[in-house]
Amino acid sequence: MSDLSELKCEACQIDAPKVTEQELVEFSQMVPQWTVENRDGINQLERVFKFKNFKLAMEFTNKLADVAEADFHHPGILTEWGKVTVTWWSHSIKGLHKNDFIMAAKTNQLIN
Fold it and tell me: Are 84 and 46 in contact (CB under 8 A)?
């Protein structure tokens, strides 16, 4: 499979399929720094990024906002002193879609 970060998100409608168990395993291996968290029955991808200070955390947050807008897929973002928690899931399907793994891979690129 190609690098997830090179793919584009597809429009995700309310009837779009969630990732299968096999896809979940396969895609998770492509973004191993991310964990799957289940909140209120909804699987979400999450990663905490660490920074030396608040300014660097905000710079990362702003870059992430630009990437999210470009693909029209938006994460949960918690920006704090020295860290940013990013959470991806597809709101319309209340779970994980391939788009979430694509965006996790794109998020990883912001720190490389």
Answer: no
Burial of 18 (0-12, 13-18, 19+ CB in 10 A): middle
Q: Please report whether residue 2 resides in a domain.
A: no
- Enter the tokens of residue 56: 């660097």
Instruction: Judge contact between 47 and 34, C-beta under 8 A.
Output: yes
Q: Do the domain assignments include residue 11?
A: no
**Tell me, what CATH number does 28's domain have?**
3.30.1360.20
Nearest to 34 by CA among 86, 109, 93, 81: 86
Number of domains in the chain: 1
Residue-number span of the structural domain to which 24 is assigned: 18-109
Q: Whole-prediction pTM value?
A: 0.91
Task: Tell me whether residue 3 is in a domain.
Answer: no
Q: What is the pLDDT of residues 7-62, one digit of tens each?
A: 777 777 787 889 999 999 999 999 999 999 999 999 999 999 999 999 999 999 99
CB contact at 8 A, 52 and 107: no
DSSP state of 8: -
